[in-house]
Amino acid sequence: MQTDEPCTITLEPGTHYICQCGQSMNRPFCDGSHAGTGKQPHALEITEPGDVTLCGCLQSQNPPYCDGSHLKTR
Ligand code: FES
């Protein structure tokens, strides 16, 4: 997924690595493409299954969650 829009997905309990470099071809998840960028994925710990809304613009002040920052760049 290559988009600046947030996405809401259902995650199961566990650790999910969320892309923070914008280079992953499997966004919102890290695919290792951050190598050499100086960025690292956000390790998101989920304890209960449920929906999360994740940042797609990489400008959120509360990563990896959307905080509405994508609306400020329009
Ligand atoms: S591919 Fe973007 S943080 Fe890993």
Report on this model:
The chain is mainly β and 74 residues long. It is 0% helix and 27% strand. It contains no helices and four strands. It has strands at 7-11, 14-18, 42-46, 50-54. The radius of gyration is 12 Å and the shape is globular. The model has no long low-confidence stretch (mean pLDDT 93). The structure holds FE2/S2 (inorganic) cluster (FES). FE2/S2 (inorganic) cluster (FES) binds at residues 19-21, 23-24, 30-34, 39, 41.
Please state the structural category. mainly beta
Helical percent range?
under 10%
Largest sheet: 2 strands, antiparallel
Identify the strand order in the major beta sheet: 1-4
Please mark out the parts with pLDDT under 50 across 5 or more consecutive residues, or reply none. Answer: none
**Cα Rg:** 12 Å
In N-to-C order, the SSE pattern is EEEE
* End-to-end C-alpha gap: 20 Å
Number of helices: 0
| Total of domains | 1
Write the layout of secondary structure elements.
Blueprint: E1 7-11, E2 14-18, E3 42-46, E4 50-54
Core attributes:
two-stranded antiparallel sheet; 74 residues; binds FE2/S2 (inorganic) cluster; single chain
Short précis:
The protein has 74 residues and is mainly β. It has strands spanning 7-11, 14-18, 42-46, 50-54.
